Fold this sequence. Notes:
Elements: E1 2-5, E2 13-16, E3 20-22, E4 25-27, H1 33-38, E5 48-55, E6 59-65, E7 72-78, E8 80-87, E9 98-104, E10 110-113, E11 117-123, E12 127-134, E13 143-145, H2 166-169, H3 174-180
Antiparallel strand pairs: 1-2, 2-10, 3-4, 5-12, 6-11, 6-13, 7-10, 7-12, 8-9, 8-11
Amino acid sequence: xxxxxxxxxxxxxxxxxxxxxxxxxxxxxxxxxxxxxxxxxxxxxxxxxxxxxxxxxxxxxxxxxxxxxxxxxxxxxxxxxxxxxxxxxxxxxxxxxxxxxxxxxxxxxxxxxxxxxxxxxxxxxxxxxxxxxxxxxxxxxxxxxxxxxxxxxxxxxxxxxxxxxxxxxxxxxxxxxxxxx
Length: 181
């Protein structure tokens, strides 16, 4: 497994495993504490694992946490997703930058999203399972959502949205969220 910095988002990394494939399928390590530690992250800081399942066109996001924020490792364990990170840390050299990725079961790449960044994704396959390893326990009172279609962000979502939560549908613009911070 190797770690690669994401130039557009300071402190973000892609962790790329080396799958071993044969006639039975494949095997790969999806988390390695030593590799995580090698880029300055504490592998013991992750306290919660979660899983979401989405169908083709479902959009989740853009989400972040207020207060201290929330760092997470995101991996598409089944299917394919279009993944988006927006740096909303005012002191970051990549403040307001947007980066997009395709995460899939074929690569099993894991994206590290630093605290203070908004995150969202859209399912590109009939079923897409997304695994999250999060560094803080969830507190719904700290949830922040930004409109997925905010023209200031201009996220290039690849598909029409087939479904999303009411919270995501009614999310305020980035400008409105930043006024409240």
